[in-house]
């Protein structure tokens, strides 16, 4: 299963390194997570849409605040890809 995680490093005052936590969790599992990190001063919505189109994940998981979740939901609207939230 192809999993694409959206990581917002600025969410929650950067208190947790989600990419490391997720990578450690999947270290002994058959799924290989792919990460999309939001960046300041970037058109993250357009970049995310392109990343999802290129990777064609089975699931998208947002690790961030309400803005991250909203952006992910908007990008996935009309696609048959479930969205999970951490």
Short description:
The chain has helices spanning 18-25, 44-55, 66-76; strands at 2-7, 32-37, 59-63, 83-85. By secondary structure, the chain is α/β, with parallel strands linked by helices. The chain has a four-stranded parallel β-sheet with strand order 2-1-3-4, sandwiched between helices.
What would your notes on this structure say?
The protein has 86 residues and is an alpha/beta fold. The chain contains three helices and four strands; from the N terminus they run βαβαβαβ. A four-stranded parallel β-sheet has the order 2-1-3-4, with helices on both faces. The longest helix has 12 residues, at 44-55. The protein is globular and about 35 Å long. The mean pLDDT is 91.
Overall geometric form: globular
What is the string of SSEs from the N terminus onward? EHEHEHE
Main sheet record: 4 strands, parallel
| Class based on secondary structure composition and strand pairing | alpha/beta
Major sheet: arrangement of strands: 2-1-3-4
What's the tally of helices? 3
**Rg, please?**
12 Å
Distance linking N and C termini: 18 Å
- Tell me how many strands there are: 4
The proportion of strand residues reads: 15-25%
Query: In percent, how helical is the residue content?
Result: 25-40%
The overall pLDDT, averaged over residues, is 91
- Pick out the low-confidence regions: none
């Amino acid at each position: 299963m192809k999993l694409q995680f959206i990581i917002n490093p600025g969410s929650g005052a950067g208190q947790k390194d989600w990419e490391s936590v997720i990578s450690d969790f999947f270290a002994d599992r058959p799924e290989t997570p792919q990460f999309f990190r939001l960046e300041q001063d970037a058109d993250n919505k357009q970049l995310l849409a392109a990343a999802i189109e290129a990777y064609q994940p089975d699931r998208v998981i947002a690790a961030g605040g309400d803005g991250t979740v909203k952006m992910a939901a908007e990008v996935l609207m009309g696609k048959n890809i479930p969205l999970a939230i951490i």
